[in-house]
Write a structure and sequence with these properties.
The complex is a heterodimer of chains A (211) and B (267).
Chain A lengths: L1 H10 L4 H6 L1 H12 L7 H30 L7 H24 L2 H10 L1 H18 L3 H7 L1 H6 L2 H16 L5 H37 L1
Helix pairs in contact in A: 3-4, 4-5, 4-10, 4-11, 5-7, 6-7, 7-10, 10-11
Chain B lengths: L8 H4 L7 H6 L12 H5 L9 E6 L5 E4 H5 L5 E8 L4 E11 H8 L7 E6 L19 E5 H5 L4 E6 L2 E2 L9 E3 L12 E7 L6 H5 L23 E4 L9 E2 L7 H4 L13
Parallel strand pairs in B: 1-10, 4-11
Antiparallel strand pairs in B: 1-2, 3-4, 4-7, 5-6, 5-10, 7-8, 7-9, 11-12
The chains are: A mainly alpha (211), B alpha+beta (267).
């Protein structure tokens, strides 16, 4: 009853609202940086804030399926906006690192290749690009079944992002590890579902073959 | 050793010190939390009154010294030093303190001693970061005896002429300006003279990334980032990186200590 009421309420919210709300934390932190309100080392702070928010959006996106499965609360309509905004934050995070932190193109490839945590983070960013490009109705229609398979890449992206966070931390970082635990838990839920899907598919095939 | 007695280009140049605000609000002091702002937020819990330091090992006068008795009669001076963190940021800090050599002379270093080991206070009730196994507590650091006796090596008790704030290592900390910041151990409760290279916290946690020497060296990369440049704190959002200097700019004073050593092996 309550769930139904929540879902009815959610259906009334247009998805474009997220494109207005989700940029706000990023814009606020950029504004804080420009007005000298981001502490003594604003470049790192901005980099970290944008990166962490991107990771949180990725995790939120991953949470939507289990939320539907366990509580029947349906946020599936909002998943695209969350994914697109996560990509926007990752892009901003990358640009701050590249433009403000590294300050030079000649250094970028050395850093990407030589530093494993940068390599991992950059791979996650690159893996998001096809997802961002195909995050429209036309692609969903054109790609059909392949679209769903392609978008499973988001689990790889989340793992790379979580790993990137762990690898760049000094010492034993509880916060970074906690993010990774959540990501792996969502992946485990998905894998068991994929396996069930595969099993029932095989069973159907066997029935068909044996008759 | 008065500063004037060290005739060197590094000390004669004018360095622009960071503000009190920046020096005391951007700190690594994991006993109070791993975020840069954690020490400033939590370090007020540390009670530094009646501070004592255990001096032991190969010394003539071992014992538990009160801080006041250990410093009594030693001449305090101001030293404006570059401070280079292993994370590739830097500051310039006007320290007040005494030379470590003066303290060691006072307690009498025995001839067999080759190293000095230090330990930070380990008080879980006052240091909330100790709840997390970020490092193998208590925090430990060490120097070779000749490094410890070098006139640049300071035991700081103040910044800008004021008592050193807790987040910066009150009431007394080491300052070794040609080494990465983590070597300059804070809130010291123990000094041990030994003939063995002492175990040091970051080296124990990750020997591949943090060597015992950890001299500032732009030509030896940290495995996860370059050490060729650094960003001085306080330059805002469009702050430019500056090249990191060999031995953090103190090459003329300290290079002799490492003559004949391969600095890529002993990093």
């Amino acid at each position: 009853m309550l769930i139904q009421w929540i879902n009815t309420g959610l259906r009334k919210i247009p998805t474009w609202v997220l494109y207005l709300i989700l940029p706000i934390p990023g814009l606020l932190v950029i504004a804080a940086g420009l007005t000298d309100n981001l502490g003594p080392e604003p470049i790192n702070e901005l980099e970290e804030e944008l990166g962490e928010f991107a990771l949180k959006l990725l995790i939120l996106g991953l949470a939507i399926s289990p939320l539907l499965h366990f509580t029947r609360i349906n946020l599936v309509r909002f998943r695209r906006a969350i994914g697109v905004m996560a990509f926007a934050y990752v892009t901003a995070h990358f640009l701050v690192w590249f433009v403000l932190d590294l300050q030079g193109l000649n250094q970028i490839w050395t850093e990407i290749v030589k530093r494993p945590y940068v390599t991992v983070g950059f791979a996650g960013f690159v893996a998001m690009i096809p997802l961002a490009i195909t995050s429209n109705d036309l692609s969903v229609r054109r790609l059909g079944r392949f679209w769903r398979i392609l978008h499973r890449l988001i689990y790889l992206v989340a793992i790379l992002a979580g790993l990137h966070f762990i690898m760049l931390s000094k010492g034993f970082d509880v916060e970074a590890l906690a993010h990774m635990v959540v990501i792996l838990a969502f992946l485990a839920l998905r894998v068991s579902k994929w396996r069930r899907g595969l099993q029932s598919g095989l069973q159907g095939l066997r029935k068909k073959l044996i008759g | 050793g008065a500063m004037a007695s060290i005739a060197s280009p590094a000390l004669a140049e004018t360095l622009e010190p960071n503000t009190w605000e920046h020096i005391t609000s951007y700190n690594n002091f994991y006993e109070f939390g791993t975020d840069k702002e954690d020490p400033a937020a939590n370090a007020h819990r540390l009670n530094t009154s009646g501070w004592e330091i255990e001096v032991d090992g190969l010394v003539d006068a071992p014992g538990r010294y009160s801080l006041t008795s250990l410093l009594e009669g030693l001449s305090e001076e101001e030293r404006i030093y570059r401070f280079r963190c292993v994370e590739a940021w830097s500051m310039v800090v006007p320290w007040n303190g005494v030379e470590l050599k003066d303290i060691l002379d006072k307690v009498g270093v025995q001839s067999g001693a080759k190293y000095v080991a230090f330990e930070t206070a380990n008080r879980p009730d006052e240091m909330p970061g100790l709840r997390y196994p970020v490092l193998d507590w208590p925090y430990r650091e060490g120097l070779r005896l000749d490094e410890a006796l070098h006139p640049l090596t300071l035991m700081a008790t103040g910044i800008y002429g004021k008592p050193i704030p807790n987040q910066n290592g009150a009431p007394i900390r080491l300052v070794v300006p040609w080494k990465y910041g983590f070597k300059s151990i804070k809130s010291i409760v123990r000094i041990t003279l030994t003939d063995q290279e002492p175990a040091t916290s970051w080296n124990m946690a990750n020997a591949r990334e943090y060597g015992f020497y950890s001299n500032v060296n732009p030509t030896v990369s940290h495995p996860r980032w370059s050490q060729a440049s650094e960003r001085k704190i306080g330059g805002g959002l469009f702050n430019r990186r500056q090249p990191t200097l060999m031995f953090n700019g103190y090459e003329a004073e300290v290079a002799d200590l490492y003559k004949g050593m391969d600095l890529t092996t002993y990093f």
